[in-house]
Amino acid sequence: MKDFAELYAALDRTTRTNDKVATLIRYLKAAPPEDAAWAVHFLIGRRPKRLLPSRRLAEWAVEEAGIPDWLFGECYQAVGDFAETMALLQAPAATSSDRPLRYWVEDRLLPLRDVDDQTRRARVVSAWREMDEGQRFAWNKLITGEFRVGVSQRLVFRAVAEVAGTTPEAVAHRLMGEWQPTAEFWRQLLAEDAPNADLSRPYPFCLAYPLEGSVEALGDLGAWQVEWKYDGIRAQLIRRQWQTFIWSRGEELVTGRFPELQALGALLPEGTVIDGEILPWKQGEPLPFGQMQRRIGRKVLGPKILAEVPVVLVGFDLLEFQGEDVRSRPLAWRRAELEKLAPPASALVLSPVVEATSWEELARLRQHARARKVEGFMLKRLESVYRVGRRRGDWWKWKIEPYSVDAVLIYAQPGTGRRAGLFTDYTFGIWDNGKLVPFAKAYSGLDDEEIRQVDAFVRRNTIEKFGPVHAVKPELVFELAFEGIQASPRHHSGIAVRFPRMARWRHDKKPEDADTIDTIRALLW
Amino acid sequence: MANNRGVPLLELDPNGLYCAAGDFYIDPWGSVGRAVVTHAHSDHATPGSQAYLTARDGEAVLRARVGPEVPIQATAYGEELTMGGVRISLHPAGHVLGSAQVRIERGGEVWVVSGDYKLASDPTCAPFEPLRCHVFVTESTFGLPIFRWPDASQVISAIHAWWRANQQLRRASVLFAHPLGKAQRLLACVDPSVGPIYTHGAVERMNHLYREQGIVLAPTTHAAAGSRWDGALIVAPPSCHGTAWERRFGEFSTAFASGWMRIRGTRRRRSLDRGFVISDHADWPGLLRAVEETRADCVWVTHGYRAPLVRWLAEHGQKALAVEAHFEGERDEPVEEAGE
Ligand SMILES: [Zn+2]
Ligand SMILES: [Zn+2]
């Protein structure tokens, strides 16, 4: 635990990528194989299934610290991080633990799941007493499953690749799918030609960047494949050895939730992996994404919901063909093979390719994207290989211009984590019959300096407090951008928007210049 | 409260804490006639008043803040003066050079205004003196139990280790610290044999005032006179972080020495490599101990996390109330130039 806590602290304390990678490599080389496996497991964002409710943990921390609940709440407000607050409140450490990470995870952490609360409490408290402050913090992070340390997956892949003497792409692939963090796994990971131990293992997803600058800069349209960009659940459908697996981009195995796609898998040739977007779909077009939420929430999928909200895989890429990894073939080839193997009239919908003769024509088509219930275009270079992660150059998303409205800041609340202690979470209002009604919440879009200015404004202009929420004098106007808009009886304004963010601080506008509910209703389609 | 005889010794008015019986303000935030100043930090010492009273050790630094013309009366710690109907004396607060608690007495009733203070030892200023009183006006900058300071000697060792590690990587070490107080405390503790030490002008000006009063600091050079930075320690005000001034140092690592560095988020938000937890304010146990040692009937809490400290004291049988610190409202963010 010493080395692991030190790793955590060292990663946390530098902003330099190369330093982070060097630190990781140093740790991975020195750690026992099982510790290295566990460290990588946590660093790429995997976590044990929920061990115990955070609420319990807080209760014990509060009792141990000898403070009342309300004071814990105040501390949490100031710190913005649960695990950290608990660690800061513990009595000064008398000792530190020399036991390895494996011991702390396998013998101390995971068994917490199977015991009653009283035993858990005793064990957690005794763990705290055995550790120093840095170790407690890392351990609390592991328990609460909030283990994030400002290292991207890609940096971890780079470090492991360095240790294994292979490429980050190969490591990324080996770390997909189901694996157990064991010494054996770590040795396999480092071995040159590791056998593909996991049948269900997906490929790392290739992600697109939003288009920067003008679309003409991409050159000849003939070099590009243009597809509509649907908004669903990004997933890979895997068919191997008579079995079907569906992985979501969040690296969750979601096979059981989509019986339609399991059935589709059975129609596919052996050794096939298709990349696509899962969408609720009826009569040749997507249903509103809200319908999908209805389905996802359910444990049991009855015939009614299956009939009301059927799903399809809008497939756009072929990653494995006849058992062979074909990601390094050009897109044009992969697309052609995908078209050939698609079973007719199945739950596989080939992502429609948009035909146009010029960028101008595409730009015109893009104006109608909303009516087609898509988010815009995907632009993919026909020659491109299927790359790992988010890269510039070959894949771009060319989204519809966002909607925008001018709204007034009416509530503010302190942020968490990096933004703890600053008012960074805002609620904006629009005019409805001479009153400002809450319309959307937004957290992003301002730079640090602007955040500081808004923070100072909130502190000076609070009219009323509701717990952490401060109602402020309606004075500041912001242009909000958002991606989608829907009628919603659950919201004050009767309207819900998707992905709202602050596009601009409108210093030039007064609150009375902000938009009204009527102008916004007009955006509904 | 012991005082039931009409006008309390101190009241809050738009200019700050006012003592009508002696006709003076303590740390006023506007321009007034007579200002008793606990210490020269800008959130306590505001220029523009007609006359100032401060502790002798703090006269030079206050002078730098309020200008060369205005009269400053300096008094030794513990020396009693009579002002109108009250007796007033200044006592060490342990915060920075010349920082003082203000003790006011009228007919056996004693009020003490702490200003900023810390209980931990500091080679650059006189140690905090516990005073018995009826009403204690305390700061609460770090009035939450998450704020508990490590031993300063450990922190200094950590600074040395960071400095040496940077030397190995041929990087400069840029250490941000409040230019009045914190910077000098660090310079009095670091080991100059590790490498050359440079300072920002704001720090160097204060160093000069400290040295003139016989306080021994590590030898420093104004950064304007330097040219080779790898292996050097550079002490600068936090406001320099991210500015053009900083860029001259080429490859460098940044750190901030402040109690706020106890919270990881405040460090990360500023994109600092390191945070060293060393404060010139009392931590939570320190605040509680200071309050207890006054045996006060009533505690006024100002300047920081007022509400939590007031509530804690009240729940522990100590009468307490929150007093506004500044007309701009509370701040729970580290205030760079002004805050410490
Ligand atoms: Zn202060
Ligand atoms: Zn101060």
Question: Which terms would index this structure?
Answer:
heterodimer, A: 525 residues, alpha+beta, DNA ligase i, domain 1, D-amino Acid Aminotransferase, Chain A, domain 1, OB fold (Dihydrolipoamide Acetyltransferase, E2P), seven-stranded mixed sheet, seven-stranded antiparallel sheet, 19 helices, B: 340 residues, alpha/beta, Metallo-beta-lactamase, Chain A, Rossmann fold, 2 domains, six-stranded mixed sheet, 19 strands, 24% helix, binds zinc ion
How are the elements arranged and paired?
The complex is a heterodimer of chains A (525) and B (340).
Chain A: H1 2-12, H2 17-30, H3 33-43, H4 54-65, H5 69-79, H6 82-89, H7 101-109, H8 117-130, H9 133-144, H10 153-164, H11 168-174, H12 183-190, E1 206-207, E2 209-210, E3 224-228, E4 233-240, E5 243-248, H13 259-266, E6 272-282, E7 285-286, H14 289-296, H15 303-308, E8 311-321, E9 324-325, H16 331-341, E10 348-350, H17 359-366, E11 376-381, E12 389-390, E13 395-399, E14 403-414, E15 423-432, E16 435-442, H18 448-460, E17 462-466, E18 469-472, E19 477-482, E20 484-487, E21 495-498, E22 501-505, H19 517-521
Parallel strand pairs in A: 1-12, 2-13, 8-10
Antiparallel strand pairs in A: 3-11, 4-5, 4-6, 6-7, 6-8, 8-9, 11-13, 14-15, 14-18, 14-19, 15-16, 17-18, 19-22, 20-21
Helix pairs in contact in A: 1-2, 1-9, 2-10, 3-12, 4-6, 4-8, 6-9, 10-11
Chain B: E1 11-13, E2 16-19, E3 24-26, E4 34-36, E5 51-55, H1 59-66, E6 72-75, E7 81-83, E8 86-92, E9 100-106, E10 109-113, E11 135-140, H2 152-168, E12 172-176, H3 182-189, E13 197-199, H4 201-212, E14 221-222, E15 233-236, H5 244-247, E16 252-257, H6 264-269, E17 274-276, H7 284-294, E18 298-304, H8 306-315, E19 319-322, H9 336-339
The complex binds zinc ion (2 copies).
One zinc ion binds at residues 41, 43-44, 116, 303 of chain B.
